[in-house]
Predict the 3D structure of the following.
Amino acid sequence: MLQKRSMDMLIRDSERNSTSEGIYAKIVAIANLPTRHGRFQVVAFVNNEDGKEHTALVRGDFINGEDVAVRLHSECLTGDTLSSLRCDCRSQLTASLEKLGRMKTGILLYLRQEGRGIGFTNKIKAYALQDQGYDTYEANRKLGFKPDERHYDIAAHMLKALKVKSIRLMTNNPDKIRDLKRHGVKVTGRIPLRVVPNKYDKFYLKTKRAHMIEQEEGLSDLPKE
């Protein structure tokens, strides 16, 4: 766990660097957070670009750490909070925290990018279209969005504010790795994440798999655990 001196240093440096170095994810508070999956500390960020509040759950002393296990998780109110079975978001969040809770050092970044970045209201509109037979990507396009509107520059800035030198990314999605690399994050490995589908999300996962996960040509240079 980070000691108070380290926490104060992160907050102080984040305040300074948010203007001098152009890091727009600013750390504003850090506190202990025991969970069902282990003892973590929670880091509160504000995004100086769009004003959104983002979160990191952290374990151990990761400052200047290399090969730190990191999971990026985009907010999903229906899945994470309301236990929806239409997606695998809650299952992935739980599996990630269980893995990280067994590690000496690890980080989960919780990003406020609801509905693949289209927002909650538009996500429910997309659900309504899916009820009519459209898949996830078709529904987003019909609403005028790209299949995935998320971007991970904010995650790169959060990792920089946390002073992490290199990471092993917990993901099946090569787009996350590519995007982080574009924003200067050193990704040294990949930790696959598997969850069991249910009868409600099978079609969603089949579509997701066809469009983006397990595109191994994008991950061939990264060792897997």
Q: What stands out?
A: The chain has one domain: 4-113+150-212. The first helix runs from residue 4 to 20. The chain has a mean pLDDT of 86. The first strand starts at residue 25 and ends at 35.
